[in-house]
Design brief:
Radius of gyration: 16 Å
CATH architecture: 3-Layer(aba) Sandwich
Distance between the termini: 12 Å
Strand content: 25-35%
Strand order of the largest sheet: 2-1-3-4-11-10-9-6-7
Structural class: alpha/beta
CATH class: Alpha Beta
Largest sheet: 9 strands, mixed
Mean pLDDT: 93
C-alpha cells in the first residue's frame, strides 16, 4: 500500500481544502493510504516512512515558512526515496527556503496577466516519451499562466508560450508548465496548473497529475 502525506494550507485564495478534496479522488482511484494535514508542524516529524509527500501549500501572501528542522526532514525523506509532488501554489510555497526551491525544481515569479483573470493559454506536451505524459494531449487552460524560474536539470514535460499582451518583453518566451526530476533516491513531480479546482477538471490535466503521482511515489 502506497502511503501519502497530503499537506495543504496557506493562502485561502488558492482554496487549499477544495484542491485537496479534488486530489483525494485521485488518491482513492490509485488505492493510496493518505494522511491529510493542514498543520505545517507535521513536517517536524520523521517523514521517511511516506512513499509520497504532496505539497498543497501556498504561503506567498501568508507568513508560514520552513524551519531548518522542517527543511532537513523534507529533504532527507526525498533523498531516501520518498516521492515529492505538487502543483500550482507549491511553486510559491516557502519562499525563504532555497533548499525547498532546489528540491522542487522551480520557483513561481509572476502570472503576467495579473488581475486579468482568467487568462486563456495553451499547454504543449514536449516530451511524449515519459510515463507521466503517456496519453496526455496538448490542452487549453483559462487560469493563471505561471512564469517560472526553473532548475536546468529538470526534465521538462510541458510548456506554455507568453503572448506579450501584458508584459511585452516576454513575448514569445516559453516557460515550463510540468517537469520531473530526481533528488537522491527520490523523484519529484510538479505542474503549475490549479488556481481553482475547475482548472484541474480537464481530462488531460487529471491524467497528467495522476500519472505524475504514480511516477513520483517510492518505486
Amino acid at each position: 500500500m502506497t502511503t501519502v502525506l497530503s499537506l495543504f494550507g496557506g493562502w485561502p485564495g488558492h482554496t487549499p481544502s477544495a484542491i485537496s478534496a479534488w486530489a483525494d479522488e485521485l488518491y482513492a482511484e490509485l488505492g493510496y493510504e493518505v494522511e491529510r494535514s493542514s498543520d505545517i508542524f507535521t513536517l517536524d516529524r520523521d517523514l521517511t516512512g511516506f512513499d509520497l509527500i504532496v505539497i498543497g501549500w501556498n504561503n506567498a501572501l501568508t507568513t508560514e515558512d520552513l524551519t531548518d528542522a522542517q527543511e532537513a526532514a523534507l529533504l532527507r525523506a526525498v533523498a531516501r526515496g520518498s516521492g515529492l509532488a505538487g502543483w500550482h501554489g507549491a511553486g510559491a510555497a516557502f519562499r525563504a527556503s532555497l533548499p525547498y526551491r532546489m528540491l522542487l525544481g522551480g520557483d513561481f515569479i509572476e502570472h503576467p496577466a495579473g488581475e486579468a483573470y482568467p487568462q486563456p493559454y495553451d499547454v504543449r506536451i514536449i516530451n511524449r516519451e515519459h510515463p507521466v505524459t503517456a496519453g496526455v494531449n496538448d490542452f487549453k487552460v483559462a487560469s493563471e499562466q505561471y512564469y517560472m524560474h526553473v532548475n536546468p536539470n529538470n526534465t521538462v514535460l510541458a510548456e506554455t508560450t507568453f503572448s506579450g499582451e501584458h508584459l511585452p518583453w516576454i513575448e514569445g518566451h516559453t516557460s515550463p508548465v510540468a517537469w520531473v526530476k530526481n533528488w537522491g533516491d527520490g523523484r519529484v513531480f510538479y505542474h503549475s496548473i490549479g488556481h481553482t479546482p475547475a482548472d484541474l477538471d480537464s481530462p488531460d490535466v487529471r491524467r497528467l497529475t495522476k500519472q505524475g503521482l504514480e511516477w513520483a511515489k517510492r518505486s
